[in-house]
Specification:
The protein has 315 residues and is mainly beta. The chain contains three helices and 22 strands. Strand 10 and strand 11 form a beta hairpin. It starts with a strand and ends in an 8-residue tail after the last strand.
């Protein structure tokens, strides 16, 4: 029987702003185990006024955990016994719940896709209705919530040393991909012993692009089934929703990210169908969608989505 684990955010379980293969795991599990992980989000300067309350775990992290680099509060890492570089970590997202009943969004100078759009920081706090799964903006608009984790990552290669969580990379990280909801499976290439999975940057809802650099930033509780795959080989993260396969790429240039994600999709189609690359390329033009995941995190993101019904070879 596979085990079930619980890991809650706190001063002993959160690392703030960085990934590093040398960071010691706070939990070690077996491949195939399930772990429920709570996360927190937000530095002291974005905390809400009463009657909204700051959860004790978030206050503890703000007071006791050093913010080593600009970046996110991440719970973990969770190590898997036997994980080695060259493996792939399969992250089956089973459930995501709100951790607290508010979130925040801001726009600021020199931030986002339009860094000159505003002259000063504008911060809003958004009540989150758990029962109705709605967020109410200050001007009265209600948005349906579709929570997901902006950051899911394994440890980077040891040679990278300590890196910020802000730019997404080959180890995952700040993917900001709104398709990564319950029912989706994320695949991350493993670069270090133990894999060392971390999660954070909870989002209540976000549009593709995350153009002002924030979603509804909030704390979430996620349940994940973590499985090692030695039958897969990946250079970049990819995912499967119930209906689509998805390749991802990140680069300072959106054009370069498009090419990486598209070539990865051609590789996937050819491997699963036996079609030639020229046929897979044409199929992408007919049925695949290239989407801008986010355009605000240093390394811009593209994801390419293809319906699974198109993964058909010659009869």
């Amino acid at each position: 029987m596979m085990a079930q684990h619980r890991l809650d955010a706190g001063a002993e379980t959160v690392h703030w702003g960085f990934f590093d293969a040398a960071l010691q795991p706070v939990l070690t599990i077996e491949s195939g185990d399930t772990v429920t992980i709570s996360t927190v989000s937000g530095p002291a300067e974005v905390m809400p006024p009463p009657p909204m309350t700051v959860p004790p775990a978030l206050a503890e992290v703000q007071a006791r955990v050093p913010n080593r680099m600009p970046g996110h509060m991440c719970t973990g890492p969770v190590a898997l016994r036997e994980a080695k570089p060259g493996h792939v970590l399969e992250v089956a997202i089973e459930d995501i719940q709100l951790h607290y009943d508010w979130g925040y969004t801001y726009a600021a100078p020199l931030k986002g896709a339009l860094p000159d759009e505003v002259d000063e920081r504008h911060l809003i706090h958004i009540p989150l209705d758990r029962e109705r799964m709605m967020g109410r903006l200050p001007w009265g608009l209600e948005l349906p919530l579709r929570p997901f984790f902006g950051v899911m990552a394994v440890a980077p290669p040891p040679g990278w040393g300590t890196v910020s969580t802000l730019p997404p990379r080959r180890n995952g990280g700040n993917l900001d991909n709104k398709e990564l909801v319950p029912g989706t499976i994320l695949y991350l290439p493993v670069h270090a012993e133990g894999a060392n999975f971390s999660v954070g940057d909870g989002h209540g809802v976000q549009g593709d692009g995350e153009v002002c650099v924030t979603a509804i930033e909030t704390g979430l509780i996620g349940t994940f089934r973590l499985t090692l795959r030695d039958d897969l080989a990946l250079d970049w993260p990819m995912a499967e929703t119930p209906t689509h396969v998805m390749t991802m790429a990140f680069d300072p240039s959106l054009d370069a990210a498009v090419k990486i994600a598209l070539r990865s999709m051609i590789d996937l189609i050819a491997a699963r169908t036996g079609l030639g690359r020229h046929e897979a390329y044409m199929l992408c033009s007919l049925a695949a969608d290239l989407r801008v995941t986010q355009a605000v995190n240093g390394n811009n993101g593209i994801h390419c989505m293809l319906p699974k019904t198109c993964l058909v070879g010659r009869g």
